[in-house]
Write a structure and sequence with these properties.
Keywords: Membrane, Transmembrane, Transmembrane helix. The protein is an all-alpha fold. The chain has one domain. Helix 1 runs antiparallel to helix 2.
Length: 92
């Protein structure tokens, strides 16, 4: 049971890191971090290079500095937040 909880916690942190990285891409792309928007290629660079790099950075920080194991309230809030993101992003 401890192994399932550990894997579930890491998966939750990885998915939340991906959501945060995706949200962080928008202001960074507007600032021109990934290239000039005049060229029209900054969106592709943000998605193909920026998103994976930001996801890894946020996931490593979350796993490194997050409490082990995650408290029950953090698990519930995290999975509910992911369900809302899924519902708004894919269904709505």
């Amino acid at each position: 049971m401890q192994l399932v909880r550990t894997i579930s916690d890491r998966l939750l942190l990885l998915l939340l890191s991906a959501v945060v990285a995706f949200i962080a891409l928008f202001p960074l792309e507007r600032l021109g971090v990934f290239g000039s928007s005049f060229e029209g290629s900054s969106g592709y660079v943000a998605v193909y290079f920026g998103f994976p790099i930001l996801t890894v950075i946020f996931a490593v920080l979350a796993v490194r500095f997050g409490p082990r194991p995650l408290p029950v309230w953090a698990r519930i809030v995290g999975w509910v937040l992911l369900a809302l993101v899924f519902a708004l992003g894919f269904i709505g």
